[in-house]
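Problem: given the chain below (182 residues), write out its structure.
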Amino acid sequence: MNRLVGQIADSLKARDRTHPVHKHFDPGVGPFGEVQLVRILVDDLRRSHPEEFDGARTPRTPDILVPGRWAIEVKLARPFGDNGRPAEHWSENPLHPYAGNVSALGDCMKLRESGLSERKGVIVIAYEHSPPRVDTSVAVRCFELIAREILALRLGDRAEATVSDLVHPVHQRAVVYGWELA
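Solution.
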């Protein structure tokens, strides 16, 4: 998981340097939606690490499938919108603790029941100001607590990589968090 988190962080940084634009938002990877960002990441990972990501695809369930290796769900956490205003419900993406929803916790439950033979994992990409105006690590620690103590999910140790100096004026840094599900 540490390697995968590092590869995703490297891909985010490299893609951000190209000043990508999503819809009408300011340049940078921060404003991209989950589906669009996952596609970009998978394309980049197939190109930069073909020996590990050959055949990787984005079937939506899971978000990233690397046949024989990984079934990964990805969630984005952005406490602020592209316009700099607080995103009031941002913490629902990692924390909503009910099966069948689209939170990271819901995705963990979905992976647990999936029957997929690949290693299973969840990635949360948290965008912040630099320095952070909202400490997203609090939501990450809450995710771990709810996953382990309330939902009895078997999370591995947290892997983490920080991407600094992103080009977006609000989403200035990203922290990529990842856990393998046992």
